[in-house]
Amino acid sequence: MPCFDDEMNLCLEDSFKPPHGPLDSNIYPGACYKGQQKSQKNTYNIEVKIDDINWAHSNVCGSLRIRGLTEKNPMIETFFTGEIIGKKYSFLTRKWDVDFTKDQLHWSKFEEFKCFKNTFNDDDFDHSKVQESPVLFMRWKEQFCLPDHRIKDIEGASYEGFYYVALTKETGDIRGYYYAKDSEPDQLLTLQLEKKNSSSAFQFL
Amino acid sequence: MSEDSSWMLELHCRFGKWFLVLFLVFDVFVLAIKTINYHGTYEVLSIICDWVTLICFIGIMPSASFPSELAKVKATGQPFVDRLFSADPQVQWESVNDMRNLTAGNRRQKANFIVVGAIPRLVYIIQQEDCMDELRRDCITLLTSLAKGGNGNVTSLCDYGACDAVISILLSSQTNSVVLAAVRFLRTILMTVAHQHHKHRKTVTIESFILDKFEDEKLISRLVEILEFGNTSLKISSLEIIAKVASSKSKCLVIELVGIKLLEVLLKLLDRNDEPRLVAAGTRAMATLLEQSRVGRTFIYVSSGTNKIQNVMEKVLTNYRVKPTITYDANAPDFVRANAAQCLVTILSIEYRQQLSRNVCNVLSELCDPEKDPEIRIQTASSLTKLLRNRVYLQNHAFYSNRLPKKIEKFFQRPPAVDSSDVHSVQTFTKELNFFPRLRSAAFDLLAVLLSEDESLRDALLVHSCGSERSLLHVNWLMSRLSEGLNEHQDPANPESRALLISSLRCLRSISRSNRHLRTSLVDGDIYQIIVKLYEESRNDEEILSQIIPVVGNFLVDFCPYKDDFVGLVTDDFVENIKTGNKFIDHTLSALINMTYSGTLSNRYKDEVSSSISHEEFLELVQKYSSNESVIEKLGTLLRNLIHDNVIYVKSDSQDCLMEIFRQMLINLPITEVAVVQFLHAVINFSDHCEGVSKLCKDPDLLTYLIDLMTTGTEIVKTQIVVLVNNLLRNSDEAFPFRQRLLVDLGVLKAVDLLKNSSNHKINDAVKKIYSRLDEV
């Protein structure tokens, strides 16, 4: 394998899979992110892999691995689906036990949201402005365990909640806040894109 | 002349049995003499054997001699046919009327008259110039009655020239009653054969033979004339004939010859008429005409009649929104709406209008209600399938606003048991039962379109049960129906069960376009095992292969838990498809692309392909398909995947075939922009390996061409080239200074200068790094 003197963030958007995603975002099928989730007491290592993005329908999905959450299961992997905030999905979640206040509280933790803070609940809110933002706002919801989707309960762990996520388009850095009704508040997720210099593609038929 | 009812059969029926009787009498006589004059035990045994053989022969004789249905009847109609030979027209007429009375609803009697030779005599009578109109009318009516007896009867009528004779009378006669009889006869012939065609595929030749007789501009013009001046019955029958002829792709040209006139007459007729059966027939004919692309386009473009047709059809839809209080046929208003909506769907396929499409979607969804006639539900489901294809907005509208899934679910419900004493209920039950397989096929086709694009719709239909704790016990209704549909192919010769299988595969294809459902719903429904078995059984069945390959293609992505099973199952077949270039090459290439797309560091799936297609063979393939846009794009993508993170593939290319492919695809041969992007991706992946960098730097012509693209290419191409240059400069090995010098000499700095103020941050980042790496020069 060649040795690299530095790492370059040059992975290209997958052009085989139409419609093309924006070239200037650092999120694409196959993208891997590594980082941590911090609660008040603990820090867990996290790996996220994006399986697929459908820009036309503002959907994203992938897998999330968390290490060291429970003693019995050193690594837990879940499948998540995501909504990209924009014309189709607004900042208001309207499900998963959250209301306007909780949405506002969590989104406001992101600096880039501040320009939308007072208007995001307006009827005439201009969603095209969200697309111009330097970050991509998303909601990620874990759906089931991998590889066996039939496992419902993991002792000492829960994936009932969801993440408020902001991805910096220029760098691919991700920040997120986990929210669940009965979980510890303000759990911070920070991830960095694993940079690659080549890419591959797939397409559903 | 078909084998079912030839003149030989008739001779056989009339005289053959007398020879047989004579033979049997003679045989009995000889045996009787033998029995009387027997000599010893051996001869007794011989005689007993002879008697047994004779008795058995007599026993099986009637059924063994004549296989056809016609041959089973006894020639009891001979006296009636004899009276047709009378010189007195009055006697002939009486006989015809007697025969009409006898044949009403009696298939056996119809066959009987055919066997004793009624058809040629009736044809002879109607062809006579001095034949009375009344006699001619009743003869044609009798021939119509005979036609209703089954496919064999229709064949006999055609064999004896009845069709030609009646067409000739239709063209020449001015007597309304005769014309009506002739039109009804022709309609019956067409409809009977069409009905049989659905039941038995083998009758397709007869149908085509009969349709040939309608390929006559004069005949179609005459039918159009009838539409203008005839009475309601005549118009309905003429419309049904026109619709039937138009639905035959090979014959629609003749319709086109009189197309504009026909359109005008039809629009007038629909604009003014209130008789539901006539409007139903008119809208049916219009829908069929519009759906035949050539005729439809002629109508819409040549007569610039889109608005005209649309206005009339919208008016019809509005008029029939409320059912008329008194109707001859209770379903006619629904048929009118279904046909009018079908016409509008065709117009929308040429000229899309959102508001209109939503209105049509509403009407069609309403006609899918479970209480509607099954034929109407099938027709509207088919129209909805066309309307919703590739229109996500409408799919969502139909899904949520019209609650289409609930209605589709009812398509899979067998008709409930009814009170056997109620004739109407029994008739409805029988009809629904007969249409049940076609209802299911239509439902799967509609679901295939509804779930093809939007993951949220797939989730809405499939997630609620598979995500809950009940999922182990309760599989989602759609997955249960799908599993049944995919398993229901025990009789490959049965067209209905085959159609159901094909539709199920279409539906499965849409569901399989989902990372989530590949991992959940399809596992819960045990679909993978079914598809493995079905693929193994259908390797030589092109119709099924055309539907199953895309499904398997989706099962080959990384997210499918059964990927390994399918890799083992299909790789050899798919590689063979590509090498031989068979008609599934497009889909098989996509499937191999999915198979070689790997989110992990493992290259085992890539190795499966690269061990079957050598570098030399890949070069031959790109040369062979360079003019096939779709295939060459996919070959580029496959190469991209094979090279990605696969240093062994690059190293093993001893003949430099990969470099030759890049040269040919990017410099020598004209390929599409999408293909260029894919081959550039392959070059970038190639440059991710030291060996690739070294080989690229030995080809200044290719590099010069690529650097030129930095200024002349599209945004994505420019981004690709700066990424490529970065890869070439990334490694600080011994040859690094050489590469720096080479790239500068080839004009990289000049090209990069033009990109330094790009608004694309990815280009900006790469440009900064290129400057940094070239700084030392």
From TrEMBL, chain A:
Q: Which GO terms describe its cellular component?
A: GID complex; vacuole
Q: Which domain of life is it from?
A: Eukaryota
The Gene Ontology biological process annotation of the record reads: negative regulation of gluconeogenesis; proteasome-mediated ubiquitin-dependent protein catabolic process; protein catabolic process in the vacuole; protein targeting to vacuole
Which PANTHER family would you find in this protein's record? GID COMPLEX SUBUNIT 4 HOMOLOG (PTHR14534:SF3), VACUOLAR IMPORT AND DEGRADATION PROTEIN 24 (PTHR14534)
Q: What does the sequence similarity comment in the record state about its family?
A: Belongs to the GID4/VID24 family.
Protein name listed in UniProt: Uncharacterized protein
Q: Which organism is it from?
A: Oikopleura dioica
From TrEMBL, chain B:
Q: What are the protein's UniProt keywords?
A: Cytoplasm, Membrane, Nucleus, Repeat, Transmembrane, Transmembrane helix
Segments annotated as ARM repeats: 117-147
Q: Enumerate the InterPro entries for this protein.
A: ARM-like, ARM-type_fold, Armadillo, ARMC8/Vid28
Q: Which Gene3D superfamilies match?
A: Leucine-rich Repeat Variant
Does rRNA-binding appear among the keywords?
Answer: no
Q: Which SUPFAM superfamilies match?
A: ARM repeat
Q: Where are the transmembrane segments?
A: 15-33, 45-64
Name of protein: Armadillo repeat-containing protein 8
